[in-house]
Amino acid sequence: MISSYLRQVLSWLSWVPPRCRYNPESPPHFSMALNILFTLAATFTIASQYYNHPILNKMAEDFGVSDERVTAVPTLMQAGYSLGLLFLCPLGDIFKRRQYILLLILISAVLWIPLCVTKSFRTFCVFSFLSSVTSVTPQLMMPLVASLAPPHRRATYLSIVVSGLLFGVLIARILSGIVTQYTGWRNIYWVSLGIQYLLVAQLWLFMPDYPSVNPDGINYFKLLWSILRLLFHEPLLLQACLVGLLTFAIFTSFWTTLTFLLASSPYYFSSISIGLFALIGIAGMAFGPVFARYVTDRIAPLFSIIAGELTCLIGIAVGTFIGKFSIWGPVVEAFSIDLGLQMSQIAQRSSIYSIDPNSRNRINTAYMVALTIGQLIGTAVGNHGYAKGGWIESGNINLGFVLFGIFVCCIRGPWEKGWVGWSGGWGLQKSTILEVSGSIEAMREVSVTNSEVIEAARDESRENTC
């Protein structure tokens, strides 16, 4: 009976509505509506990882565990997400994205049900881990958008989805705080369950059936090995991974320890107030697409990354040293970290997705595993620092992270082809050298399609003429 039911589900997932079927003679146009659909899927899938952050103190009370022990929930969810990134996301370079994404969201929704009902902290931790393994949909959306967007506007289109990701992280805190304040913390998990099934329905109705980028298939173990090979053969990817790891360690450390700061002396904020604090971060996040359109799409990505790291540095310095006695400290830090993260991440993604179009899911896997490791480090080290020395100690750790990130940015220039150095100059404009390699011939070496090369060259010519 179970096998029959599974066959029916797989048959339903595999069937494609006529308007969504792929026609090679008339491929689906990448419209703003599709971009928003992908963004919504990314937003509310990633949100499921963060509903617990502002209500950890309530969960600890309900399960009868300590504040330090309850942080195992976000830590396990980030660990599960990392495994999903490493072992499931690379398959996006083999499978059709529509069916694969629908299946992952559905599995995640089924595994989410025990979180809504269990009264055992151990069971809650186990299913938090399992459900997060399959909640990697946003990281399949990113390479898809990068493939469909025009190369000269890739940063702009990606910025919308990246904004959706960060919005999901922050809206999760707001929704969780409001629902917990007026009902109970468990109800936010029921809300999330309903949203996940709604996403399945929306994507099934409207997501086009894009073909596989490697229709002949790739051996799975060779697929995983190629991720490691990319890290050791692409200096740009390794640099982006290191900077991204350090920046996300800052982000997670701040937002996790902020809950304990705001719930204690001298603030004593309620759950809803702590959740609404994320509105400050959303204000910073909203600036991302504007920055991408007018800055990141026009200059070498490295300079946008450095600008983002410096923005984080200013916010952390202010927040760390006045946050214990003035609410303006956390306010400035929340705005600056979210803005700096947005600026840095959009530029990083715009650059690494140009390395090899046929390996974008694997490139994204390497990058996102690094980011998730950063989240794990940020959660663990930040909470340990807070337990040991309070807000100042965790803030000093974040200062160390961001300074090391700036150092990694500075050891390799924007046009450097090797691992270390600034050969190729300090040129700001992308038009001085093509986005990745500096020439059309180099673009061909990384298997960029002829249409992309021609379009990029035409756009460069127009900009130079202007």
Give your account of this protein's structure.
- The protein is an all-alpha fold and 466 residues long.
- It has helices spanning 2-14, 32-47, 56-63, 67-70, 72-87, 97-117, 121-133, 138-148, 154-182, 187-206, 220-233, 235-263, 271-276, 278-285, 288-296, 301-322, 328-352, 360-410, 440-445, 450-465.
- It has 20 helices and no strands.
- α11 (220-233) runs parallel beside α18.
- The longest helix has 51 residues, at 360-410.
- The radius of gyration is 22 Å and the shape is globular.
- The protein starts with a helix and ends with a helix.
Outline of this structure?
About 70% of the residues lie in helices and about 0% in strands. It contains 20 helices and no strands.
